[in-house]
Design goal:
This protein is an all-alpha fold. It contains 23 helices and no strands. The chain has helices at 3-30, 34-42, 44-75, 81-87, 96-107, 112-121, 137-162, 165-173, 178-207, 210-214, 220-229, 234-260, 281-312, 314-317, 320-354, 360-366, 374-398, 412-436, 440-448, 453-482, 485-490, 498-507, 511-540.
């Protein structure tokens, strides 16, 4: 393939991947909006307020959980610090709706916690005592924060470890206590990393559907889902999706603006031994209790309950249907990962061949889908694919042929395309990073030996970037296994994945029947955490 062919293919691929965003905007601007006007006059303000309060609550709790924990693990001698470095990442592998069900089962009125309190204090009914409602906006914020605070922990801990120890020593020589050094030195220097984490937590909260739907909290995400499936109005769902997309864009712009004027040069050139504040007595054990308590609440307790359910109900769960659902998830995830590898390699190599600023545009366009919540993305995918389905059937009827029916939206095409748009940015980032480490002199040497673009890619670049390519594909595979909102809207009729299979049982409050599928999802989700921990392991010693 000539250089022009690579460039044309790169632009065509990027435009195809950005098509859902363009279709969403076009549909929202041009379609009839009677239902949207009705929603705006009645319940839209409730959706907006609930969404804002939920995001603020999750961000606040994630900061409360993540920042002190990151500083304790990075800068203090906490009991079990080496194990805590990776254990605090484990909650990321837990689907939030699983954690929501577990804690609802524990803390609801009929759960063991309130039943035990009634027995202990001889309370006769709810009028005799007050207990915070787990099925509430505050309960949803708490559950989401338990699984999202590792974003804050990871980035804040990495920032604390990268800070120059000499700055901390200088502050101590000037009479600052460890708390004052943290407040005046460490925290301001870590602010850019923390703001990135805050934006990630906020976007993940906006994207969540299962938890808020389980808790019956009306947010913009549930509004999109209900408007499309409940009212059958794709146009109104598109308008609501654009509101969510606007919120995501504002979050990204806020995060970048907050860091735009900050230039911090702090890392020393020489080797500095790590600084560890010794914690003594009750303070030491209080710090350990705080850190290990988060691991217990966010991962160990929910996973232990899943294992218990999985063992006790194994005979009911291990069915031919379960095997089929697992096979569906593996098939879709593998197809998405393979396509993502091809797209990432194409766009990355196109960027390397062109080398100009314009060649960055296709990469950034293709990566836009990662910032879109799954529910919003699903609507963006449905708009053009539904139009294409109608167009194909109309053409077949005009030619006197039998129409193929739902050729795109009724098959795996829609769900695989949606997953690809959503997660290809992960593969692009991995490949772009790997290609950036390949010396340009290798390209010139290949050219001088008579290799064209295709030969250079096959014989030079592909062997050098295969590890990054595999890592990106693995991450895409795992994210596809866990994806729920897009799967609920894009799956063909009578088609289930492990995520939708588990969620159906959670919605019916029968998690014990879906525990086996949840365990598989969690174990698959642990793989990238192990990989991340190994990459950060040298910093934690």
């Amino acid at each position: 393939m000539k250089k022009f062919g690579w460039i044309a293919s790169g632009w065509a691929c990027a435009l195809l991947l950005v098509l859902p965003v363009l279709a969403l905007l076009f549909s929202a601007l041009s379609a009839d909006g009677d239902l949207f006007v009705h929603l705006a006059d009645t319940v839209l303000s409730t959706y907006l307020v609930n969404t804002l309060l939920l995001v603020l609550g999750v961000v606040s709790l994630s900061l409360l959980f993540g920042v002190p924990t990151a500083w304790l693990v990075a800068m203090c001698q906490v009991p079990g610090r080496r194990a805590l470095q990776w254990a605090l990442m484990l909650p990321m592998a837990m689907p939030s709706y699983i954690v929501a069900y577990v804690y609802t089962d524990l803390f609801d009125y009929s759960g063991p916690v309130q039943a035990g309190l009634r027995t202990l204090f001889d309370w006769q009914g709810p009028g005799d005592y007050w207990f915070p409602a787990i099925r509430s906006l505050g309960g949803a914020a708490w559950v989401l924060a338990l699984v999202l605070f590792p974003y804050v922990y990871l980035l804040a801990r990495a920032s604390f470890l990268e800070q120059s120890v000499s700055l901390i020593h200088s502050s101590r020589l000037l009479g600052s206590s460890p708390w004052q050094s943290f407040r005046r030195i460490s925290l301001p220097l870590a602010r850019p990393a923390i703001m990135v984490a805050v934006s990630l937590v906020a976007m993940e909260t906006l994207a969540d559907f299962a938890t808020v739907h389980f808790f019956a909290i009306n947010t913009l995400t549930t509004a999109v889902y209900d408007t499309w499936l409940g009212y059958g109005s794709l146009a109104t769902a598109a308008k609501l999706s654009c509101l969510m997309l606007l919120a995501v864009v504002l979050l990204i712009a806020f995060e970048r603006r907050s860091r735009s004027r900050q230039q911090v040069f702090q890392k020393s050139m020489g080797h500095e031994p790590p600084l560890r504040y010794p914690l003594k007595g009750g303070l030491r054990w209080l710090a350990g209790l705080w850190c290990w308590g988060l691991v217990l609440a966010g991962f160990a307790l929910p996973f232990a309950i899943l294992l218990d359910y999985g063992v006790r109900y194994f005979a009911l769960s291990w069915t031919p249907e379960f095997a089929r659902f697992a096979g569906n998830s593996l098939l879709i995830s593998a197809l998405t990962a393979l396509l993502a590898m091809g797209v990432a390699l194409l766009l990355g190599f196109f960027r390397r061949l062109d080398g100009g600023i314009k060649s960055l545009i296709p990469l950034r366009l293709a990566a836009l889908g990662y910032a879109m919540p799954g529910t919003v993305l699903a609507i963006g995918v449905l708009v053009p694919l539904t139009a294409l389905d109608f167009g194909i059937n109309d053409l077949a009827e005009w030619l006197g042929l039998q129409g193929p029916g739902l050729l795109l939206t009724g098959t795996l095409t829609a769900i695989v395309f949606g997953y690809l748009v959503r997660f290809v940015a992960i593969a692009i980032g991995s490949v772009e990073s790997s290609l950036g480490k390949v010396s340009p002199s290798l390209d010139m040497a290949a050219r001088s030996l008579g290799q064209g673009a295709g030969g250079m890619l096959r014989r030079v670049h592909l062997p050098l970037v295969r590890r990054g390519l595999f890592a990106g594909a693995m991450l895409v595979f795992i994210e596809s296994m866990k994806e729920l909102p897009a799967a609920l809207l894009l799956r063909p009729f009578n088609f289930e994945t492990l995520a939708t299979h588990v969620y159906q049982f959670v919605s019916d409050e029968m998690l014990e029947r879906g525990a086996l599928g949840a365990i598989v999802i969690v174990l698959v989700g642990l793989l990238p955490l192990i990989w991340v921990n190994r990459s950060l392991d040298s910093q934690g010693h």
